[in-house]
Structures are given as structure tokens and as C-alpha cells.
Amino acid sequence: MFCLQPDPTVAHAELLPSAPPVGLSVATAPLPSLQAPAAVVMVRPHHFHPNPETLADNGFQSRGAPADGGALAARAFDEVSAAAQVLRDAGVTVHLFEDDGTRDTPDSVFPNNWFSTHPGGRVVLYPMHAASRRSERRADVIELLKARYRVQELIDYSGLEADGLSLEGTGAMVLDHLDRVAYVARSQRADPAVLARFAAHGHYEPLVFDATDAQGLPVYHTNVLMCVATRFALVGTGLIRCPAQRAQVVRRLQDSGREVIELSEAQLREFAGNALELSGRSGPVLALSARAAVALTAAQRAAIERSARLLPLAVPTIELAGGSVRCMLAGIHLTPRPVAAA
To answer: Domain of 292?
Structure first.
């Protein structure tokens, strides 16, 4: 099991939203949606590089070897820094942690895979498929959550790694916190036994389906296939090859009152499905990568913007590792402590 011991080699810098604009007081600012958190955890890597251990089953990861590792790492550092600032400017609280490279954690920039938070005060730790990713779990992140938010329960599934089981958090699952549904594309990163435990503990309905790309490779993480926001859902339905499963996913989303915005496989390759709705100072925003925003059609943009403002973040270097903006953001669905709010 994961031992929560402080790590003196890591650092944390907190980026709080700047003051509300004139005419908008804190008291009148929009309240966060249960689906769209107002705060996130991010990790800024100092020695970023695509992880060779995850290449076999991640069809979104770049196959080309970078020519200059130092330049690549510098660009990734700058991209995370800039993305955190854009989020802060939009009114999102960013808890920014540093990965200084003292551990071999090439995918540390994607913290949403090893932990998740849930309304009611639950924090969940997950078993990771790749051995190199298991060192990403950090005691200082959990301690920050305990100090700044009301954490009632910590559930740790990480010990199941010894049995060869994995469930990579809100990468493997796309969670509907409103209707309590866990959408899961079958893969070796989403073991059904661990999913059953998570669903039972958290009172989620697991909706499991098969999704494959044009080469027949299973989609490695559900969150590159779909995004569930408060009033809409982005879904690459074409990769759900079974008509009955496809209809079930679409029907369940529509039954929850959401507008289903379908994405093509080409748009998924631009990470258009790897987005996260957040609660900003002036209302909901949809954080997604700059290339994903460009890939959307005018009709899709209009459908999204009926309920959330697009917030593009330029992260092309990070995307070489096979994940994008949603993977970089671990949403905080916890109640802030009064001292933190002050």
C-alpha cells in the first residue's frame, strides 16, 4: 500500500485566482458545478520525456524519438507554466507541484491517473499499469488536500499492483458526478475487478464498452475518447464499434439531460475529446489544448459555448507523451476549509 510520508525533495507552488474584475464580487461569482471543479492539481516536470514503457498500448503517443531531450524538457516546463497561468487568469485555483527529476517519473505531468477526489470528502489512490508510473504518487499532494480541503476518507487501491491489477483513475474512467456513472473503455489499464470495487465504494454505475482505433488497438484511456461536462458531452462514438454499445453510451448521456457532441477519429487524434470543464470566475470554461480547439467545427464550438467558454492551452510538447490537457488536470471536487477560503 501507498505510505503517506512527506517527501522533502518536492515543492509546491499555489496559484490562486486573481481578484474578481470590477463589478463582480466573490459573493456574486458563479458557484462551482458538481461536475466542474474550481480547483486543480498540476505537476510541472523539469525533465519531461515520452515514456517508452507506455508506448505499446498508447496509440496517441508519438513514435518519433525527440532529437534534443534538454530542449524538449524546457518546452514542457514552459507549457505547464503557461497553462497554469491561463487557468489562474480564468479564476481557477491551481495547486502547482514540481517534479524535479529526482525520481524516474516521465509521466508525472499527468496526475489525474494516480488519484481522484470526490464530493463528500473522498480521495482515491489508484493502481498503475506501468511500473514506471507508480512512483508518481506523492504524499505532499495528499497532505495539501487534507490541509486545504475537507477530506473525510482516503481509499487506497494501489496495493493491487502487486496482483497485476490497475485502474488508472480519471484516465481509465470518465466520471459523471451528477448521475453517478463511470464510463469505461475496456483496456489493460482498467481492470474490471478494481472498477467493481471503485463503483461499489463510490456508488457509481459502471458503463463499460469496447473502443478501438482504425488499427484495431483498444483506446488506452477513456478520457481521450470522451469528456462529460455539466450540460454536454464530447464523444468519439465512431470508435465504439459495437452498435448496441454505442447506442447505450449515447442514450445514457442523453438520459442525463446532456447534449451529445460527436467527434470524429481525426478530431480525437487532435485530442478534442481530452478536455475538462472547470468553474471559472465568470462561469464554466472548457479547458482543452490549442490544437483540439482548432480541430472543432463551428457547429461544435457553438454547441459547447452555449454553456461553457472555450479555454485553449498550448501544450504540443506534452502531447507527444500521448495525453493532453485533461490528463494534466486532477480536478478537486472537495469542499475548501474555511481557512483556505479566507
So the answer is: 12-341
Q: How far apart are alpha carbons 329 and 200 in whole angstroms?
A: 25
CA dihedral angle for residue 297, residue 210, residue 162, residue 127, rounded to 10 degrees: 30
d(CA 182, CA 170): 9
Give the CATH number of the domain where residue 70 resides. Answer: 3.75.10.10
In a domain? residue 7: no
Q: Is residue 318 part of a domain?
A: yes
Region class of 23: left (phi > 0), else alpha (psi between -120 and 50), else beta = left
Q: How far is CA 336 from CA 23, 58, 121, 202, in A?
A: 24, 35, 10, 20
pLDDT band at 67 (very low <50, low <70, confident <90, very high): low
Assess contact for 292 and 316: CB atoms under 8 A: no
In angstroms, the CA 74 to CA 89 distance is 23
pTM of the model: 0.89
Q: How far apart are CA 159 and CA 20, in angstroms?
A: 43
- Residue 5 inside a domain? The answer is no
Residue 4 domain-assigned (yes or no): no
Phi and psi at 338, nearest 5°, equal -55, -40
Task: Summarize pLDDT for 33-45 with one digit per residue, the tens.
Answer: 799 999 999 999 9
Name the domain count of the chain: 1
Q: Residues of the chain with pLDDT > 90: what percent?
A: 78
Is residue 173 within 8 A of residue 222, CB to CB? The reply is yes
Q: Give the integer Cα–Cα distance in Å for 38 and 36.
A: 7
CA distance 226 to 181: 13
Q: Which helix (H) or strand (E) holds 173?
A: strand 173-176
